[in-house]
Amino acid sequence: MATDVIVPTLGESITEATLGQWLKQPGDAVKADEPIASLETDKVAVEVPSPVAGTMGEQVVAEGDTVNVGALIARIEEGAGAPAKAPAEAGAVNPAGPGETPAPKDDETAPHAEGEAGSLTLSPAVRRVVLEHGLDPSRIKGTGKDGRLTKDDVLAAAQAEKAPPAPAAAPAPEQAKPAVAGERREERVRMTRLRQTIAKRLKEAQNTAALLTTFNDVDMSAVMEARSRYKDLFEKKHGIRLGFMGFFVKAAALAARDVPSVNASIEGDEIVYRDYLDVSVAVSAPNGLVVPVIRDAQALSFAEIEKTIADFGKRAKDGTLTMEDMKGGTFTISNGGVFGSLLSTPIINPPQSAVLGMHRIEDRPVVKDGQIVARPMMYLALSYDHRLVDGREAVTFLVRMKEALEDPTRLLIDL
To answer: Is the same domain home to 6 and 142?
Structure first.
């Protein structure tokens, strides 16, 4: 008896997804609620659990296919028994029982499961070829950067396995050409649904909004001194490190109170102003940039902000962020400085009207009290929709942030 596995409900207004990865292969034993596939939606990856315990049966769709909510993607064979597995510690092979598939011997090629490939760093294209040919990637020598496998490496290994042994006396082909050092190669990888959505939304922002960017710079001496002085006490009390983002989120909340248009949005022929600040924080994920939301940032403490950001970062890497985590958002902060960016012009995340870009801190000569001195400076960039935010308001917003960051006491006494 087989049980159908269908695409679950993915969230409000989301009707389709891309099957990004099969986590189980036909013949693999599965437990009830164990993930068997990963779906890529417009925003996050969603795992599809097995509805029952049994053995992975037919895979109705392939990796990279688009599937609709409610569509059949696989079948689970119930009561068929699980295939025997070789214990990793002993290296022994269990005998197959009734209805079970014998585990492959050492000299046989085992059906290649995703878990085996998952121990190596493989691109989606390489992983797909490995699975198609049932190869063990750990036995293939990589010619890519840092010894990584390329698609050509896997195809060559597959061809070598299929080729019959050459006669002992067969002469070498006269026309054989030696491999050329520095050979130019190309690899085509299908865009993930997340990357497609990012591209679409960024282009829509450029086509719809009247984008403009205003810059300022900030002396980070006071913030760095405060972090240095209190970081140990802060971590001991709250169990989290005191980072820069807490200061910037609090400063943005303070500035948005004085310049509400930066935290507003256009809906039809109306402007929506808010007395709260939901900050979308750009976080790097394996498949692209995602923007989970810190809600009611104006009411949170430094510790609450830092804990929320740390949790978002961890879950972005694990691929466990949910739709709800990224829903809404009234203002965005993007920290390109962690990657070494000196200056940039970020693009707004519609329907928001502004995004703040942070950059790297570096010592630069500045004039203080008539003297040229070295100070740790950071450029700030505010990109905004000029249909809603005037240049004067954008400049004022950055000046308010600069004042708060150069004198963090303002954040405590609400100035």
So the answer is: no
Catalytic residue of the set 152, 217, 311, 390: 390
Tell me if 333 sits within 8 A of 248, measured CB to CB.
Answer: yes
Catalytic residue among 363, 386, 407, 414: 386
- Residue 325, CA distances (Å) to 11, 18, 243, 329 in order: 12, 20, 21, 10
Site of tokens 């100070």: 375
Q: What pLDDT, on a 0 to 100 scale, did the predictor assign at position 316? A: 84
Tell me if 192 is assigned to some domain. no
CA atoms within 13 A on the CB side of 351: 11
- Measured over the CA atoms of residue 193, residue 197, residue 200 and residue 206, the dihedral's sign is negative
**In a shared domain, residues 273 and 353:** yes
Band of pLDDT at residue 92, cut at 50, 70 and 90: very low
Q: Are 114 and 131 in contact (CB under 8 A)?
A: yes
* 382-415 pLDDT tens trace: 999 999 999 999 999 999 999 999 999 888 777 6
Residues 145 and 9 in one domain: no
Q: How far apart are CA 243 and CA 247, in angstroms?
A: 8
176 contacts: CB under 8 Å, gap ≥ 6: none
Q: What tens digit of pLDDT does each residue of 311-321 get?
A: 998 888 887 88
Give me 295's structure tokens: 């809600």
Sole residue written with tokens 């070498």: 172
Give the tens place of pLDDT for each residue, 141-166. 887 766 777 877 888 888 787 665 55
Q: Is 390 assigned a catalytic role? A: yes
